[in-house]
Specification:
single chain, 653 residues, alpha+beta, four-stranded antiparallel beta sheet, 31 strands, 29% strand, elongated
Length: 653
């Protein structure tokens, strides 16, 4: 009895359900509640002991019933969290162990198969050696006899007799041909085992540990790890919360499963399942995404595709059959569940209106005084080539006028269309210059004996137009259809006699032989500067020569004079600029006191002064060339005093 009372006390203190339900005892106070215990001898009977008979004990300090319930709820939540972490950890551990053992196990299995094959082959050869041909023949004859007996029994006797004869013939065969049956068993049994093992491994080698995802009480698929579900959850939250703010999804539960790879689901499939099992008003529709950004959803995918095809249709008709027409942006169609609202579900008319609208308008610049294309491009921090691409009718040499409108940025459509087609163009190929020496020409002189001709090259390119503007060019091939002809230039090697030196003061030589008329040839305004910094050799002096009278001096420099700067010999005013005739490109400067200087045969377009302009001593007015009646590049320099050409040498410093 003492043991019984002790056990009863333990049961009273440990069982949480010792109190009767309050709903069943609404009219009773806690003093009327009885304890329920099990009798030691009669387990099925309940013994109700009135509470009055139980000795009162002092109350123990502890939690009240409401506090205990809250504590139990928090404990359950903690256990659930710990359980989720435990599942994740176990999944990772099992997955790691399986992947780590998979490859070594397969290698070991290959070795086992090889050894098993060798063992079976050895067994078979040994069995064949042991058996005799006569034994096999006798076994065959007896087998035929037994088969004949069984056949007759099946035709004439009942099923029970057939079974008895079959058992009898089998036992007789085992007793009579024991060695044959043992040898066959040594071969057949290993083969059967190997076959079973191969089938088993073939079934389980392609299996992995995965997580079964349960969402809202439904199995929505299997994932390799939790990252797949988290990604699917993000996709689902974006779709379900379209234009509605944030959305909280219920947490899933996981179970570890061993399954084949083909049963795993990707993030998009899990996303569809989440949406399908989420409470709300959602419909299955075709979502339209532009570069991954959701635009809207259309109930019929065929209607959505037709809208975009109609946008491309005029471009295809204009580009031709050889061109490729497509959108610059990536258009995606995703069939899934979407909120059934007017903000999300569009009709085709609204979709087409939005897709053919613009994101931004064109930007223009009005040309101001003194602006150029390069300055405008610099002001807007853009390349000149981009500016020219926005304005196809302009080139770098196109003159600008005040008030002209220049396109700085084109209109940007909501979706852009690109047209890719093959184009050919012809470009000129520069010729090369072949230089040869000539003993008949002075040093610094040159003569072109064959003019160069530029060649022609045909280039095939893949050109991409975006909304009608050429944007990308990729060269495919090139072909020379006309070769360039090189230019041949002879340069002189004959030594030039230097001009006589002049030490200053008035010219004391026989000047009368150089005069072209009567009059004073002195100049009181001081000495003139040399009209070129480096062309200081006189290739042809002033005076008469075989070709006639030479009214100036020809100046050059060794190694070629073309491009050498021409300088004003003194300050003065430009009174003439010619571009044709025997002088070619020339400049005439009036220095006052009846003195003028002429600079002739300069390069076309190199003259940097104009009529009426004031120039100073040493200012560049052009470059040495060979325009007009000139034999090679040189500077023809004249000094004109009171209307007559005089020898320039006394006037030069």
């Amino acid at each position: 009895m003492a043991g019984k009372n002790t056990r009863e006390k333990k049961e009273k203190s440990s069982l949480p359900n010792i109190l009767l339900s309050e709903s069943e005892n609404k009219n009773n106070s806690y003093d009327d509640v009885d304890y329920i215990v099990y009798d030691e001898q009669e387990e099925a009977e309940q013994v109700i002991i009135p509470i009055e008979e139980v000795e009162e004990k002092p109350k123990k300090r502890g939690l009240s019933v409401p506090d205990a319930a809250a504590f139990i709820q928090e404990a359950d939540e903690c256990v659930n969290d710990i359980g989720a972490v435990t599942v994740s950890v176990l999944t990772a551990v099992f997955h790691g162990i399986f992947e780590a053992l998979k490859i070594p196990f397969m290698l070991l299995w290959q070795k086992v198969l090889m050894k098993a094959g060798m063992a079976i082959s050895a067994k078979f050869s040994q069995a064949v050696k042991r058996m005799r041909i006569k034994e096999f023949k006798r076994f065959g004859r007896d087998a035929k006899k037994s088969a004949k007996v069984i056949k007759q029994t099946r035709q004439n006797e009942d099923f029970r007799t057939l079974i008895k004869n079959l058992v009898f013939e089998t036992k007789s065969s085992f007793k009579k041909h024991r060695r044959v049956w043992l040898s066959m068993a040594n071969i057949i049994f290993p083969l059967v085992c190997v076959t079973i093992l191969i089938a088993t491994l073939g079934k389980y080698t392609d299996r992995i540990f995965a997580l079964q995802v349960n969402y809202n009480g439904q199995n929505i698929g299997y994932v390799e790890n939790e990252d797949v579900y988290n990604q699917a959850k993000e996709y689902a939250a974006q779709r379900l919360a379209l234009n509605n703010g944030s959305l909280t999804l219920n947490p899933p539960t996981y179970q570890i499963k061993l399954l084949t790879l083909n049963k795993l689901s990707d993030a998009k499939t899990i996303c569809d399942k989440i949406i399908e099992n989420t409470d709300g008003d959602y419909i299955n529709a075709c979502g339209i995404y532009v570069d991954g950004e959701f635009i809207c959803a259309v109930k019929n995918e065929a209607d959505a595709r037709n809208v975009f095809e109609q946008i491309l249709k005029p471009y295809k008709a204009k580009a031709g059959s050889d061109a490729t027409v497509a959108f610059v942006e990536e258009i995606s169609y995703v069939q899934s569940y979407y909120p059934d609202t007017d903000e999300v579900i569009w009709d085709t008319a609204k979709l087409k209106k939005t897709m053919t609208s613009t994101k931004s308008n064109a930007v223009y610049h009005t040309v101001k005084a003194g602006e150029s294309l390069s300055k405008i491009a610099s002001d807007y921090k853009m390349y000149l080539s981009d500016l020219l691409s926005y304005n196809p009718k302009l080139t770098e040499e196109t003159p600008l006028h005040v008030g002209d409108r220049i396109v700085i940025s084109n209109q940007v459509n909501y979706i852009r269309v690109k047209v890719m087609k093959t184009e050919t163009r012809k470009v000129k190929i520069d010729y090369e210059t072949e230089t040869k020496e000539s003993k008949t020409l002075y040093k610094g002189q040159s003569k072109v004996t064959r003019k160069g001709q530029k060649g022609v090259e045909r280039i095939t390119e893949m050109v991409t137009y975006i909304d009608g503007i050429k944007s990308y060019v990729t060269e495919i091939s090139s072909e020379v259809i006309k070769k360039p002809v090189n230019e041949i230039v002879y340069k002189g090697t004959k030594v030039v006699v230097s001009a006589p030196s002049y030490s200053g003061g008035r010219y004391s030589g026989n000047y009368s032989e150089y005069k072209t008329g009567n009059g004073d040839t002195t100049y009181s305004g001081g000495k003139l500067s040399w009209p070129s910094t480096s062309a200081r050799m006189v290739s042809s002096p002033f005076g008469y020569r075989r070709m006639g009278f030479h009214g100036g001096v020809d100046l050059c420099r060794p190694g070629g004079s073309r491009g050498t700067p021409v300088l004003a010999a003194a300050g003065g005013t430009v009174v003439s600029c010619t571009t044709s005739g025997s002088y070619g490109y020339s400049v005439l400067i009036d220095h006052g006191n009846g003195l003028k200087t002429r600079y002739a045969h300069m390069i076309a377009g190199s003259v940097s002064v104009r009529v009426g302009q004031k120039v100073s001593t040493g200012q560049q007015i052009g470059k040495i060339g060979s325009t007009g009646n000139a034999y090679g590049a040189h500077l023809h320099f004249e000094v004109i005093k009171n209307g007559r050409r005089v020898n320039p040498m006394p006037y030069l410093r």
